[in-house]
């Protein structure tokens, strides 16, 4: 992928979470004994950990299919699109919506994560949206940098990541507006944003004394609208496990590997490195659809691409294993450099010299090289190399553990998922006694769920919403071309009902349109409702 100076690089998040100052006094809970998910995945497929490492690891892709038939894909808990009654298969309409339940995390945590898929998507969107607006309003006092500990989602259009400036110009940092326009999103290090994903990573990340698990993992999440492809064909510098949570996605993995075990600067399909055409024209090692609950292992260096199906959005979690950082070459080079830097004689400059000195200089360099090899053999030992790897992994794990446990502790205490709702102190009332804040504007929009009821906004409500648009929010509406006609039909139908008692449930907005296109998915309807309430076109019935 071409990387421009004003672009954010989607290959930049290569492994290690940013350090954070957050801490937690929470001790490891019983639910974090570890290895629950990975052990169950392997046992369900009659596979041992050693068998996985010996037969599959870094050699071939492999699918751990959900232990039910694929015909269940449209009715799985957490799968929204295609359901006759979406609220019946999600936790949105229940009293325990999104709540943390320890018994599920010890019995079948992966199934629980799939069941919570819709809530996890909303939590990531709402929390990231709130953080984006907060960081936007504090730019002047933070030298234009994002808030500490927050990594803004990457927004993709036409398989290209948008720059910060483009996101502000097109969407004013409104993620729901971006999705409504057909944008895909990548939430890097989502295990530092959501308790369920924090648990997932902690479960996969075991101590070296354990018999199963990886030294260090982190989670990136991909949200893709129907009939879309987030990124072009590319290879990664890490091994990954793809956890399909919502919807379906067609994956293609190519058999030929352009760069074996690539480092970050060798990832084809990223940062201007083209994927050789012979790879894309060659045979495929995998070409199939992932359904909710399926898990796909993709080895480091294998070129792949994925596209959501025509009738379903896709949300998957990528558990990344930063194997490029644990190589012998990389870690030996660190130790070799550190050793040579400590030798004072090697700090002197070789140049300049006269022509007659060249032969003597070459001989001197050869002696120094010979001495260096002897010294390196003594000082760069396998124990030192391994200790360096372990120390850096332990440092990453210590930071990640603190942040993850803080999320899990908060979720357990609160009994629910923190959606990171936008807060404001502005409150205005009308004669009906309800706060204007609850009906229109950004705060009202943040409270909307799939079961919310909306209506046409009154002139005074629209004026209030427009006057209180937060700094950095959009005053317009960008809509994906495929759904533009349907969106206009929905908006016009609601607007002409002003002054009547007509009400519209978000879940039923599709019924307003004759023969709606498949791309008018449930999340699109939710984003439309949020944006129209934020802009004052519609109001929430409270």
Automatic annotation (TrEMBL):
Keywords assigned: Dioxygenase, Iron, Metal-binding, Nucleus, Oxidoreductase, Transcription, Transcription regulation
Gene Ontology cellular component list: nucleolus
Database matches in Pfam families: JmjC_2 (PF08007)
Presence of the UniProt keyword RNA-binding in the record: no
Keyword Metal-binding: yes
Principal EC category: oxidoreductase
Cofactor note: Binds 1 Fe(2+) ion per subunit.
GO MF entry, a single one: iron ion binding
Cofactor(s) required for function per UniProt: Fe(2+)
Domain called JmjC: residue spans: 178-336
Segments for region (Disordered): 1-28
Compartmental location: Nucleus
Composition skew (Low complexity), residue ranges: 9-28
EC number(s) per entry: 1.14.11.-
Main subcellular location of this protein, as a coarse class: nucleus
UniProt family annotation: Belongs to the ROX family.
Function field: Oxygenase that can act as both a histone lysine demethylase and a ribosomal histidine hydroxylase.
Name this polypeptide is given: Bifunctional lysine-specific demethylase and histidyl-hydroxylase
Organism annotation: Nitzschia inconspicua
